[in-house]
Amino acid sequence: MSHFKEQPLPGRRLWALWGCMTGFLLMLGRPVVDLVRYLGELAQLVGDVFLSVFRHPVRWKLVLYQIVNIGFGSQLQVMVTGAFTGAVFAAQVYYKFNQLGFESVVGGIVALALCRELAPVLTGLMLTSRVGASIAAEIGTMKVTEQVDALRSLGVHPVDYLVSPRLLAIVFSMPILIGESILMGMWAAKLIVVSLYGVPEAFYNDQLDKNTDMTDLMFGMTKGVVFGILIVLISCHQGLKVNRGAVGVGRGTTAAVVITSLSILVVNFFLTMALNFVWPVART
Fold this sequence. Notes:
Layout: H1 2-5, H2 9-55, H3 60-70, H4 75-100, H5 106-144, H6 147-153, H7 158-196, H8 201-211, H9 214-240, H10 245-278
Helix pairs in contact: 2-7, 3-7, 4-5, 4-7, 5-7, 5-8, 5-9, 5-10, 7-9, 9-10
C-alpha cells in the first residue's frame, strides 16, 4: 500500500500542468474571440448601413427629426463644455508661459489644442453620454418590446428606419457642434487671458493668426465626423442586440457608453497620427 502511494506523480503533475495551460489559453483566447466576433458584427452593420444609404430611399423626415434631437438638443452641453475647457486650459498655459515670458502665445496654443484635440474629443464624449446612451436605450426598449420585429413584419428593415437616419443626422451635426465648441473655447480663453490677466489683445490676436488656420479646423471636423459615426454604430448595435428585458436594456446602454468612450480615445490616437501626415502642424 505504501509502495502504491509513492508512485506516480509525474503523470498527474503533467496532467495538472496541461490543465493549467489549457485554462490559461482559454482565458486569453476568449476575449480575442469575443473581440473578433464583435468587430464582425459591427462590420456587418456597416455594410447594412451602406446599402441602406446608397441603395434605398433615405427617410429625410426621420433624418431631420434626428438632426433636431442630436444637433440642436446638444448645443448647450457642447458650448458649456467648450467654454470652460478653453478657459481652464488658457489659465493653465498662461500660468506656465508667464514664467517664461511667452504669455502672448497662449492664444495660439489654446486655439491649436481646441481645434485639433480638445473640442472634437470632448464633444464626442459629451455626445456619447447624451446621444449614445439615448440611442442604445431607445432601440433596446424597442427590441425587448418586439417593435423591431414589428418593423420587419411590415417590410421595413430596422437599419433603414433606426440606424441610417441617425447616422446621417450625426454626420451633419458633428461639424457644427465642434465649431461651436471651438468658438466658445476661444472666446472664453481670450476673456481669461486678455481681460483677466492683461495680455495685450494685439499680441494675442497676432499669435492666434500665426499659429492657427483652416487646416486645424478641418483636422478637428474630420475627427468629429469619425467620432459621430462611431457613436451611432456602436450605440445602435448595442440596442439591436439587447435581450432579457429591462436588465438587458440597462446593460446595453452602459456597454454602449463605455465601449464608445474607449473607442473614441483609441481611434483619436490613430487619427492624430494619420492626419498629421496629411495636415502637418508646422507652419510655413
